[in-house]
Design a protein that fits this description.
242 residues, alpha/beta, Rossmann fold, 6-stranded mixed beta sheet, 4-stranded antiparallel beta sheet, 9 helices, 10 strands, globular, binds adenosine-5'-diphosphate
Length: 242
Amino acid sequence: MNADYLELTNLTVSFDGFVAVDRVNMSVLPGDLRFLIGPNGAGKTTLIDAVSGLVPATGAARWAGENLVGRKVHRIARLGVGRTFQTATVFEELTVAQNLDIAAGARRGPLTLARRRTSLPEVVVKAMETIGLTDLADALAGTLSHGQKQWLEIGMVLVQDARLIMLDEPVAGMSAEEKDETGRLLQRIAADLTVVVVEHDMDFMRAFATSVTVLHAGKVLAEGSVAQVQADPRVQEVYLGP
Ligand code: ADP
């Protein structure tokens, strides 16, 4: 069994008795570009929060031969689990290269800023190529477009050697061109890594998902290819009403 295989078994998250994620079973393989969709409040963000260790859960989330449930956030990150948030959290007053270098440094250990070095670490150079920001290496992050900031945040996860990447609504607020660019970026990443994308944008999902899990009221309502979940009457009901 490939170790880079995410397997959730009865994953459950409760907030004061309210069950936000309800016995979810879900498996994601490397090479898959899995979209996690569902109406507002379905439990999508809570699910990836639980896998990243940000909220306590019960059940199991197996990754790299370990159950992540009950592990601390930094330990989970060390196992190669990374995620982005709905609002990109980049250092606006630092350059693209410095942001990536700091993120890589968080993994390496002692913090050393790129400006003290004559050349950038290979991992930073590679990440800038992957996210398409090589030409903007010396631009301040604060001057980037909304889309470029999101790509930088993805790069900051990549340089930390993440092998499982979970993204929370990566194309929210992006232009059509930026969405297309992001889809191609995710396809490049998914060729080598395991990727889970929480998304509201159905056109984006249709264009880029290789498989889809639909959550509703904390439970898995449907799973399969885009065509399969779109044809599912239960999914249509949740999105369109009975
Ligand atoms: P989605 O991402 O699918 O829109 P969420 O995972 O954000 O849904 O939320 C799922 C449900 O859990 C919602 O009803 C939300 O109000 C609730 N919830 C999320 N986080 C908390 C929390 N920290 N405390 C209490 N309830 C929460």
